[in-house]
Amino acid sequence: MQAAHEPVAHEWHAHGLTLRRVAIDTYHENVAYLHRDCAVYRAEGFQALSKVEIRANGKCILATLNVVDDASIVGCQELGLSRDAFAQLKAADGHPVAVSQAEPPESIPALFRKINGERLSRADFGAIVRDIAALRYSKIELTAFVVACNRSELDREEVYFLCDAMVASGRRLDWHASLVVDKHCIGGIPGNRTSMLVVPIVSAYGLVFPKTSSRAITSPAGTADTMEVLANVELPFEQLTGLVRKHRACLAWGGTADLSPADDVLISVERPLSIDSPGQMVASILSKKIAAGATHLVLDIPIGPSAKVRSMPEAQRLRRLFEYVAQRLQLSLEVVITDGRQPVGCGVGPVLEARDVMQVLENDPRAPDDLRQKSLRLAGRIIECSPDVRGGDGYKLARDILDSGRALAQMRAIIAAQGARDFDHQHPPLGALTLEVRATEAGAVIDIDNRQIARVARLAGAPKVKGAGVDLNVKLGETVAAGDLLYRVYASYSADLEFARQASAQASGYRIGSAAQVPHVFVEF
Amino acid sequence: MQAAHEPVAHEWHAHGLTLRRVAIDTYHENVAYLHRDCAVYRAEGFQALSKVEIRANGKCILATLNVVDDASIVGCQELGLSRDAFAQLKAADGHPVAVSQAEPPESIPALFRKINGERLSRADFGAIVRDIAALRYSKIELTAFVVACNRSELDREEVYFLCDAMVASGRRLDWHASLVVDKHCIGGIPGNRTSMLVVPIVSAYGLVFPKTSSRAITSPAGTADTMEVLANVELPFEQLTGLVRKHRACLAWGGTADLSPADDVLISVERPLSIDSPGQMVASILSKKIAAGATHLVLDIPIGPSAKVRSMPEAQRLRRLFEYVAQRLQLSLEVVITDGRQPVGCGVGPVLEARDVMQVLENDPRAPDDLRQKSLRLAGRIIECSPDVRGGDGYKLARDILDSGRALAQMRAIIAAQGARDFDHQHPPLGALTLEVRATEAGAVIDIDNRQIARVARLAGAPKVKGAGVDLNVKLGETVAAGDLLYRVYASYSADLEFARQASAQASGYRIGSAAQVPHVFVEF
Question: Can you name the CATH fold of A433-517?
Answer without folding.
Answer: Aldehyde Oxidoreductase; domain 3 (3.90.1170)
